[in-house]
UniProtKB/TrEMBL annotation, chain A:
Record flagged with keyword Cell membrane: no
GO MF annotation: an example: sodium:proton antiporter activity
Swiss-Prot/TrEMBL keywords: Membrane, Transmembrane, Transmembrane helix
Lineage of producing organism: Bacteria, Pseudomonadati, Bacteroidota, Cytophagia, Cytophagales
InterPro entries linked: PhaG_MnhG_YufB
Protein name stated in the entry: Multisubunit sodium/proton antiporter, MrpG subunit
UniProtKB/TrEMBL annotation, chain B:
Listed name of the protein: Multicomponent Na+:H+ antiporter subunit E
Species whose genome carries this gene: Pontibacter indicus
Alphabetical keyword list: Cell membrane, Membrane, Transmembrane, Transmembrane helix
InterPro entries per the UniProt record, alphabetical: Cation_antiport_E
Family, per entry: Belongs to the CPA3 antiporters (TC 2.A.63) subunit E family.
Amino acid sequence: MLDNINFLLIREIVSSVLIIMGVIFMLISSIGLLRFPDFYIRMSAITKGATLGLGLILTGMGIYFNEPDMLLKVLLIIGFTFLTSPVAAHVIGRTAVRNKIPFWGPTDLEEFKDYLRKEHSNHRDHERDNKHL
Amino acid sequence: MKTFIVHFLIAFFGSYVYFKYGDPLVPYNAIWAVLVASFIMFLLWLTSPFYHRAYFHKLPQAISLFVYFLKELVVANFRVAYDILTPNYRMNPAVVAVPLTVSTDMEITLLATIITLTPGSLMIDVSADRKYIYMHTLYVKDNDMEAAKQEVKDGFERRILKLTR
């Protein structure tokens, strides 16, 4: 019974489905990067779509190549990507707020006003740096 | 956490060595490798009450947090994908100040990472007194900020608190 199953075919189908889903997620988030109205929304589209897409593509690759070494590397890459990409997004978002990148018109900033006022009056580093240049 | 890392490494390299140098009963593929690693983890978990009682209770909660996170990740990705592909924006972005119950560095980092990885929400900053986190979120229904906060507090924060306290 088990001898009749074509494992290579099953592996190929499963990994193809995963890789195609990952590519579609990445494509959609790239379109989002072009379409969305402001910096913050664009960034939340691209970081997440790219992270999930990368995870799916690498999982598909690990299943296709079917070797212990490959699976080890794939899992490590996925783990480190999931750890580092939110940190990068956080730092970029905070830098954008400090540099007064505007929010999209309908964004509700009611609870953020105090923070913005404090941040913009305290931190004039970027202006000073620009003058220096 | 330390126990989990040690167990995970033992399980991973155990299954690695089993398939690489041992004489496996089953043909190698990704599913069997994961199953063997999980089996070793399960055996180690059964022995854990003898030296680390809390770990015995916390592993199921960690798994539930992980599964909930994966579900949220996929669901929210589809929601953002739908918004990208249809001509009109359904989103109603806002920056909300979520009051924190979690207090240690580890918990805040975990919460912030999970929030940033969920599409449609982005951490901007933690307030100086660690009472609030500022979260840029895309979907606030009917301008109801309290509901958006409650979603984070009931979903992720409650599970993280269960895991770490």
